[in-house]
Amino acid sequence: MKELSRLGLGINTKKSEVITVEQEEILWSKGLLGESNPQQLLDTLLFLFGLHFALRAAQEHRNLRFGMNTQLSVKYDLEGKKYLQYIEDVSKTNQGGLDYRKVSPKMTRAYENSNPLRCPVRLYEKYIALRPKNGTVDAFYLRPKKMPCSDVWYCDSPVGIHTIQSTVKRLCQSAGIIGNFSNHSLRATAATRLYQAGVDEQLITEKTGHRSNAVRAYKRTSDAQQASMISVTSLLSIVIPRSYILNEFVASSFLAIAIHRFYKLIMLYYEGEDNFLNEMKNEKIQLNRPPFARCCFMCPKINVTRYCTLIDLLLCFGEFRVVPNL
């Protein structure tokens, strides 16, 4: 395994990609999501449930039930706002039994929104009204009828798990959206959008049902965030004139250490600006040890002695000088 990794094999894992807001808009605008026919409504509910409830891949969709023992229910909060509540029973992190008796089940909501055409609560109620009136199947997702009636759009038989599993991939391919998209993309999209909106990590874990910091695996950065990170790191411009350098190894080492530590800490910026600034102030580069022991670090803005911090580097905007300590 180590030899394969050294050769670069198996390093890049194939993750389900996040669906951007622009890509979701394409699905709506092209009529792949909506409520005008049985298949479209079914696909839309699966998409919205995966997004609002952060369901795992296909199995948690397949486990959704209808009837007395359903995990879904329409409720009102104390302010009178209507919402659809999902309570999980069995999942990857809560498999039931004695070992999980102290684990609280995931409970999350999807509120009614201002756009009725994309409202998960209204679309859920419409779907329920179009199921068979005397159906015997308790599976939530039912197969669309080939010739639907005005009041019954679905057969009294469940959608197969493989059909459910391929839904998001099929929708994206039909829309011409290129990438590795699957039902799990909806879960990743939910967590990523919450992170990017600045929602507290504890609230995100309540939405996703994670029991540890594994939720951070879904903390995908957007193109805008990547661009902003590059603009910040570009401030780390340490000018080291060749005529002043005693040893090129000293200069390259200084740059390597500074950039490595700064890049490591820049990711803290997305966890909270206060944590980021505190770490920047505390992270120090020792200047009285090799390979810097024989050099003098000069800067007009700060007094550089035994060490400098990464926040010092940013404040100086490229005015550091490394000169021989002759």
TrEMBL record:
Domain ZMYM2-like/QRICH1 C-terminal stretches: 19-172
Major subcellular location class: membrane
Record keywords, A-Z: DNA recombination, Isopeptide bond, Membrane, Phosphoprotein, Transmembrane, Transmembrane helix, Ubl conjugation
GO biological processes: DNA integration; DNA recombination
Topology within the bilayer: Multi-pass membrane protein
Record GO terms (molecular function): DNA binding
Assigned GO CC terms: membrane
Compartments in which it is found: Membrane
Stored InterPro entries: DNA_brk_join_enz (IPR011010), Integrase-like_cat_sf (IPR013762), KIAA1958 (IPR042838), Ostalpha/TMEM184C (IPR005178), ZMYM2-like_C (IPR021893)
Protein name per Swiss-Prot or TrEMBL: ZMYM2-like/QRICH1 C-terminal domain-containing protein
Organism: Lottia gigantea
